[in-house]
Amino acid sequence: MNNTFLKNICIFGASSDRIDKVYLDAAFLTGRLLALAEYGLVFGAGDSGVMGAAARGAREAGGRITGVIPEKLNRKGIYFEGCTERIETKTMHERKSLMEDLSCGFIALAGGYGTIEEFMEVLTLKQLKYFDKPIVLLNTDGYFDPLIRQLERCVFEGFTSKAHGALYFVAKDPYEAVGFCVNYKGMEIKDKLPGMEG
């Protein structure tokens, strides 16, 4: 594995092609912008949907692409053939762990159960101080609005501290998403953040 210490951003996103083109376009631009910013793309190695679109965007801009895929899915026609490196894992759990280890930040693009689960896992790891890396929800066309409202309700009703409500960033477009990751300075998690008292 030759890219462990390089700058990589992990993207989570749908593998489905049965989605609106607006999500595919946002993913393509995200991958392209990461490559132009000289960040490698780490993803689930899928050829279709949002995953494939992001990888194609990165490839078009000459970016480095690392696909991490469990052996059950590592089949021609499923994986993206343009990966710079494709890594096979035994399980989905190992796949997620490796993607987290290889990456210095995360962008969740529009997706289904798996995407939401991956986002929630890295958010929880950051909350528990296993790492301090940027986490972004790319809220294309308001896709994540219901999830954002749920996360805000967790804070409002006291299930999550106000400080932990600031562990992720909501981006309106790929430029904001990539810019937040590239310019991330880290944060100190406190019981209270300035302006959030009361």
Label the CATH architecture.
3-Layer(aba) Sandwich
Strand order of the largest sheet: 4-3-2-1-5-6-7
Could you tell me the strand content as a percent range? 15-25%
Classify the fold: give the CATH topology: Rossmann fold
CATH class: Alpha Beta
Helix-strand topology string: EHEHEEHEHEHEH
C-alpha Rg, in Å?
16 Å
Mean of pLDDT: 91
Number of helices: 6
Number of strands: 7
Structural class determined from secondary elements? alpha/beta
Overall number of structural domains = 1
Tertiary shape: globular
Distance, first to last CA: 48 Å
Low-pLDDT runs: 1-5, 188-198
* Helix content class: 25-40%
**Largest sheet, strands/sense/barrel:** 7 strands, parallel
Give an overview in words.
By secondary structure, the chain is α/β, with parallel strands linked by helices. It has one domain: Rossmann fold (3-Layer(aba) Sandwich), CATH 3.40.50. The protein is built from six helices and seven strands; from the N terminus they run E-H-E-H-E-E-H-E-H-E-H-E-H. The protein has helices at residues 21-36, 49-60, 92-102, 113-127, 145-156, 174-182; strands spanning 8-12, 40-43, 65-70, 85-89, 106-108, 135-138, 169-171. It has a seven-stranded parallel beta sheet, sandwiched between helices. The protein is globular. It starts with 7 loop residues before the first strand and ends in a 16-residue tail after the last helix.
